[in-house]
Design a protein that fits this description.
Length: 385
């Protein structure tokens, strides 16, 4: 089996894949088109499955040291009434860890620091993946040609590698929602670690960080391309009557810190995550809506599973076949569940349907709610060493 790989994309999934491949003895080059890794992004919640993947990659302890456990909080109405309480201690007892909140930039830095600088080819655009001979693949990168035994396409929801490999496959589609998010400029007086609030066609949530700051997000049911001249003022208007600490979170935020993206998804599942010597990973393979908080966790699962399969199987082809067989059913099932969660949560707008949903949530025993969460969190990674 060969042992050289090119990873296209330097996001969370791509960096994790590079770390995993290096841990099994491969030489890896990460090709990232942006010239400055500014660690853009807001916050992220890491569930047990993502944290276990990070443990196998050797940086789980560092992540836990900088993250904040989500022990308190839950789901509320705009008036502040509780629909469901979070029991982080029960979740920790069941899977060994609570969900943990961390700035996305911190996670990205920890992943990047686990790789040697020479493994990162920054500011370089990767071209189509070509077959150079039966046992290798070739990637052209701004005039540089890289031959490798494996190419990992981790270039996001708009993956050019995926489009080249599956030219007839439907493109990602708009989910019907748009999301605005930011990290507060200063600490905010919060009484919970994590909250979601569901209104009619709208959601507001926050993740508390170690330093007292918080990430917040607002998800709105709006057409693709909708933008606001002053996003922060628009959110202040839309959420002015919602419960505390929502107004305080907005007040603690700089206007220029607000990020605004349409929520798109790869709604039509791919028939395979591998073609020849190329493996698709993360959003390039299974971009999903954020309603379960599993996007990054699934990419981390991909990275560890890919490395383990290549370490175990006798050939690259066999390793990729195993990766596809193990990852495609699970990740596509999680994507379907995330879409359904959005339909029953933020996307729900009919007043009667909202009342029925809220009543059902209030009547659901906490033990049952925990078991529902465990369907996605209780994943055991393969060992890399």
């Amino acid at each position: 089996m060969g042992n050289t790989a090119v990873v296209v994309g330097g996001g969370i999934g791509g960096l994790a894949a590079a770390i995993g491949l290096r841990r099994i003895g491969w030489e890896v080059t990460v090709v990232e088109r942006v010239s400055v890794l500014d660690d853009a992004g807001a916050g992220i919640s890491l569930a047990a499955n993502g944290l276990r993947a990070l443990d196998e990659l050797g940086i789980g302890e560092a992540v836990r040291h900088t993250a904040r456990g989500q022990y308190s909080g839950g789901t509320r109405t705009p008036q502040g009434d509780w629909l469901a309480r979070m029991d982080g201690s029960a979740l920790e007892k069941a899977v060994g860890t609570p969900i943990m909140g961390i700035p996305r930039s911190t996670l990205h830095r920890l992943l990047r620091d686990a790789l040697p600088a020479e493994a990162l080819l920054i500011g370089t655009e990767a071209g189509p993946v070509e077959r150079s001979d039966p046992g290798t693949a070739r990637v052209s990168c701004d005039g540089t040609v890289l031959d490798a035994d494996l190419v990992v396409a981790a270039d996001g929801i708009g993956s050019t590698v995926r489009s080249h490999l599956f030219p007839a496959h439907p493109d990602p589609v708009h989910s019907g929602s748009t999301v605005l998010r930011a990290i507060t400029e200063q600490a905010v007086d919060l009484h919970t670690d994590f909250e979601l609030t569901w209104g009619n066609g709208a959601e507001f949530g926050h993740i508390a960080f170690h330093d007292g700051r918080a990430e917040w997000h607002a998800v709105l049911s709006l057409p693709a391309g909708t933008r606001f001249t002053d996003p922060l003022a628009e959110l202040g208007r839309r959420f002015r009557d919602w419960h505390d600490p929502i107004p305080a979170l907005l007040d603690a935020t700089r206007s220029e810190a607000v990020l605004h993206h349409d929520v798109n998804e790869l709604r039509t599942p791919l028939p395979s995550y591998t073609v020849g010597r190329t493996a698709l990973l993360g959003d390039a393979a299974h971009a999903m809506t954020p309603h379960l908080g599993q996007g990054a966790c699934q990419a981390l699962e991909d990275a560890v599973t890919l490395a383990a399969a290549l370490a175990t199987e006798p050939t690259v082809e066999a390793g990729l076949a195993r990766y596809d067989a193990e990852r495609r059913p699970r990740s596509q099932a999680v994507a379907r569940a995330a879409r359904q969660a959005g339909r029953m949560g933020q996307r729900l707008s009919h007043p009667l349907a909202v009342v029925l949903r809220n009543t059902a949530m209030r009547l659901t025993p906490s033990r049952l709610a925990t078991r529902m969460i465990l369907r996605h969190h209780a994943w055991t990674p393969p060992q890399l060493r």
